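agent: user wants the full assembly modeled, not chains individually. Plan: 1) parse entity lines 2) check alphabet per entity 3) run joint structure prediction 4) return tokens. Steps 1-2 passed, three entities, 881 residues total. Proceeding.
--- entities ---
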Amino acid sequence: MDKLVLIDGNSIAFRAFYALPLLQNNKGTYTNAVYGFAMMLMKVLEEEKPNHVLVAFDAGKITFRHRDYKEYKGKRDKTPGEFSEQIPLIKELLDAFGIRHFELESFEADDIIGTIAKEADRKGMPVTIVTGDKDLLQLVTEKVELLMTKKGVTDADRYDVEKVNEKYGLKPKQIIDLKGLMGDPSDNIPGIPGVGEKTALKLLHQFGSVEEVLAHIDDLPGKKLKERVAENRRDAILSKDLATIMCDVPLDFGLDDLIYQGFDADRIIPLLKKLEFKTLLERIQGDESETDQPEPEKISVERVESEDNGKWEDFLKQDRIALFVERNHENYHRADLLAIVLSDGKQQLFLNWETAKRWPAFQEWLQDSDRKKICYDVKATWIVFKRHHLESEGFMFDILLASYLINASESGHDLSDIVERKLGGGLPADDVVYGKGAKRRQLGEQELSEHLARKVNRIYQLCPVLEKELKEYDLDALFFDLELPLTHVLARMEWNGVKVDKDRLQALGKELQERLNGLTERIYDLAGTTFNINSPKQLGEILFDKLGLPVLKKTKTGYSTSADVLEKLAPQHEIVEEILRYRQVGKLISTYVEGLLKEVFDSTGKIHTRFHQAITTTGRLSSSDPNLQNIPVRLEEGRRLRQVFIPEKPGWQILSADYSQIELRVLAHLSGDHGLVEAFQKDMDIHTKTAMDVFGVSENEVNSLMRRQAKAVNFGIVYGISDYGLSQNLNISRKEAGEFINRYFESYPGVKVYMDETVKKAREDGYVTTMFHRRRHLPEIHSRNFNRRSFAERTAMNTPIQGTAADIIKQAMLRMDEALEKRNMSARLLLQVHDELIFEVPKEDSETLSDLVREVMEGAVTLSVPLKVDVSTGNTWYEAK
DNA sequence: CAGCTCACG
DNA sequence: ACGTACGTGAGCTGC
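--- prediction returned ---
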């Protein structure tokens, strides 16, 4: 049975564009209309199973309708560029599906659809029209039905003759009369003013057509209506004409040219990959795999055996070799080496640990800094080799770091994610190959060597692709002169580890546990019952249901019991303060005492954190297992935990050096605001200075409240200010917060200009950059969703500041590493905490190091304001404050 | 495994 | 009108 589907291309694309968020793919191409269109298309093909398909598009702006009525579609907003640029992609998609699409000069899509529908009707072929435009209802007949999209894209109502009658009490042909009377503001069709759908329908039910209505003006109800119809009879006729779809357009094709024979997945898959339509891709590939599971591409891999390793020595002489080390855990400080693979792009070598150990040429190659290696995650690789007593040098490229610099916001930087994005796939994810969680399994030798061969081969393939992109984005220097060398510095920091006074930690734990026990009893007492204080749900029931405290804030799931809420409730009931203390102490025990104890290596009494160099969107590092960047400091009780961080050797000290107000100094530099620059040049207390300006008082009139509020305003500025955020932080009204912000911007107009310019530039470019060219893509800066757009705008303001500060301290770390080496000092860098570097140093060198650190950190970059560093030393991290 | 809470800069 | 401060990681609860 033949069946024809006619799709109103522009209408469906437009629907999709407004129904979906403004999606962008990795390259910044807008794709939401294409995505919605593709969803709709696949659904219609599945459900209607047509063997003839046509998609009609509007051509150009001027149509034959403009001859009669120049203002046709005159009041429409200009089509957004984000929409227009997607139309060619939709046509490309249709080509890939093997679906015909047409447009015709001076006609609209409707007219093409009408003409073909009429031809099919005449030949007795059933037709389904897909559109979002109810004008097309006029085409419905016994053979022609219409799918009209509802709110979304794929959701549609089906109209046949009966349904049109049910809905309007009209025959399909009368839809044009309806429009003749009521007009259509969106197409700028006038109709009769004052006649809406209700009146128009009433008149048509009585008279049947525009012409009949006009012939019976005297019989119309109401004086006003009579007048209006009489005065606008020409417009009514014109409007009906404009609404009439032309069904005899001269077309140079016919039904036979619209045959659709089903799609060829091989043509569609590359396009869907380019567009990054993962769900649709899975749907198509899923359909395919039912018939034939695509075998992973064959890969050659040679096992190197100890007996005949001599024959591979020429292989190692090549210029560039990709190297990958598989390990058995994510945490490379605890992991064992499973296998080593090498690739020159053509051949892959597989060696197990036994072979590597007994192959001197390999070890020589590995530690020769002139033999260049391409790697994924140099830091992990270096450490895993180190754990197995092998030195490795000569890493000239890191796939992980490169992918991160190219787009830090990208969801995954696993090797398979990068391969997916940059090579269009071809490497199954580890989770899939090994299984995850309980399903994790060990691979057989053959399977393992093939999987690893694929990995190392892809690493080799990726290198030139990423190198080129780094260059395009002007990221070479950041990559080669900063991040790649830094990875070695971080590796040594992690490898060295930090010594922990385990006894002291346990003693603190015991003390805190006793405090917690006391607090628990007291809370049960005050509550009159026992319950799980750690459960916000149970706690909420006690506080708000049982004790009747007022509910100030709710979360999605129930009452909020967060600290800011509890602080406000504290005066009302004794229990609240106890709960706050309980939370504090509980946090210290579970996260810091127990958490840290788990991470202390038995053999050395040290902790080896991991610094992640490819996680944050701003360029900062992060730290995990354990996180040593959030050790308590603000409250004395928690701060004592810093007593457990000690130098490795007796007679050594801890030295801490932190940048003073680095982010605000960076802001002063980037904005060039005179007041701010001058304040730092004079080394003023910046929060006091801000208070003076914002409150209009002299220095000695600034009280502690004013300074505290000014400090919050400064933070707000750095974060990308909003009155709401500031009001929350300061617990003041939004209006008051807004006034603070206004006065800040009046005092520092350069900052205001800078912020506005930065957001404007982000809109133009789609990204922002730091001083070192680090880039953050902000696709949502164009979002029509207020929240998403606002977030992107704040991010645009914050990232250059936070990111430049991150660039600077990374630069300082590199310089410090070189300086220590050059001076032959035994001091070692232990930790970085965003604006602070922590060292261990022999006591006798600590003064020398103090001076050196200050000089290097303050001189890491030259800004229009000085950088200032505070240094202090002590026997523990606690004392170095 | 998501949501809440809280530690840091 | 919309409802959030920017960037992280970890522990706990409860579905």
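agent: reporting back. The two ends of chain A are 84 Å apart (CA to CA). Residues 531 and 654 of chain A are 43 Å apart (CA to CA).
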